[in-house]
Amino acid sequence: MAQALYTHLDGKRILVAGAGVTGTACARALEKRGSLVTIVDEKVTALEGFKVINPAAVNFSNFDLLLVSPGWREDHPVVLAARTARIALINEVDLAWSFKPANQRWIALTGTNGKTTTVELAAAMLRSGGIAAVACGNVGTTVIETVESDEKYDILVLELSSFQLHWLEDAQFVSSAILNIAEDHVDWHGTFDAYAQAKISLLDKSMTAILNADDGEIVSRTTHWQGRKVFFSLDTPAPGEIGVVEELLVDRAFVADPQEAAMFSELVEVTPTVPHNVSNALAAAGLARTAGVSHEAIRTAIAEFTPGRHRIEQILERDGITWVNDSKATNPHAASASIMSALSVIWIAGGLAKGATMGELVDRIKSRVRVAILIGEDRELIASELSTRAPHIEIIRIDTPAEYSKGGDNNGLMESVIRTAKERAMSGDTVLLAPACASMDQFISYGDRGDRFRAAVEKVVRDGN
């Protein structure tokens, strides 16, 4: 274990890799404890209160430790140089673990899709049960900022990305959940197997695991793990599992008699009532039960909870056509789940594929999609698979208008997309932004992409401009 690296930080010369949200929060926490902090970044050249250097200027004879922000890869020259110089590497989550109050417990969750919604719901369940809890990590507020805050939390619910899990060593969790494992971030990890192993590594730091029985990768990759496994699925649960019986979400794992069942909630209380969202609710409920939250408190939280923006967010329904923003669907697995929740889809897709392939996605959704409107740098990956595997689907490519620029006021790109969709859509259709790709080629973020979709729908469809 590397915990000794996080003690006696006063006077330590620490290089923080990355001047983003995580790196900056860590730099402030370290400086507060007397560390001599320098930040290295490829794009940022100045940050108030800190010396910032370019990677080419790094000399590890001047440093004792390297704190790696989660997005930095093993093959980055700064990381390679640190290892060559035998400089120890530390990370944000383990740093926060070393600072947390002794009585504070941690719960964790990972997966390819659904993480943010599920950690937020799990935290809401804990609060409903009278526990001071908050979601943090990849969800928004960093773990280190949460630990450093004035709020006194009993439990933190951490959303952990594959990047964070790659670097993680010390933190331990009362329980953890893995929602799904599908192809994503292959460009970062190198192979799908390395990505999947990073996800599964969370179990080695957990006492109890809440696992998706409907996901073959999870089932096969957790066979030899010896901790307590609680499977959830959309089917009738066996003793020791949680699942769905008729119109109820039920618990046969955290009950006095596993031959009996307790109710988490009615199916219709999950909003929106689509399969992957029900699955997420089951995972969150399992995590909440490991913390002792009652079934009644869990039901209250489910009934009151609404997912955040850009997640299957209905923008408008007019003339029998539903317009839905699922900009958070940034990989094929997420897009598939979104598309399969509708029957007839005008699909808006494209962007940066992050090394993902699109063949399995197209095979799964080809019976639901009528028209595909494609944008972005890797749109031809989708177009090629559609042409080969689903030639009946009309493909429309929308080029970036000359007057449009990323982050600018002009919304011509998305307005062109929406006008095209409006021309093709018929009563009964869902016009769905589920890009299967990241957004940064044409938008500031998935949130920016979703906001521009909403603005275009309101202008072109609602207001008729």
Descriptive account of the structure:
- Its main location: cytoplasm.
- One of its GO terms (cellular component) is cytoplasm.
- Residues 110-288 form the Mur ligase central domain.
- The chain has 16 helices and 20 strands.
- It has helices at residues 21-32, 77-84, 92-99, 115-128, 143-148, 162-167, 186-189, 192-200, 216-221, 275-290, 295-304, 332-339, 359-365, 379-389, 412-424, 446-462, and strands at residues 13-17, 36-40, 51-53, 65-68, 88-91, 105-110, 133-137, 155-159, 173-178, 206-212, 228-232, 242-245, 248-251, 262-266, 313-318, 321-325, 345-349, 369-374, 394-397, 430-433.
- Helix 4 packs across helix 10.
- The radius of gyration is 23 Å and the shape is globular.
- The model has no long low-confidence stretch (mean pLDDT 93).
Walk me through the topology.
Elements lengths: L12 E5 L3 H12 L3 E5 L10 E3 L11 E4 L8 H8 L3 E4 H8 L5 E6 L4 H14 L4 E5 L5 H6 L6 E5 L2 H6 L5 E6 L7 H4 L2 H9 L5 E7 L3 H6 L6 E5 L9 E4 L2 E4 L10 E5 L8 H16 L4 H10 L8 E6 L2 E5 L6 H8 L5 E5 L9 H7 L3 E6 L4 H11 L4 E4 L14 H13 L5 E4 L12 H17 L3
Parallel strand pairs: 1-2, 1-4, 2-3, 4-5, 6-8, 6-9, 7-8, 9-10, 10-11, 16-20, 17-18, 17-20, 18-19
Antiparallel strand pairs: 12-13, 13-14, 15-16
Helix pairs in contact: 4-10, 4-11, 12-13, 15-16
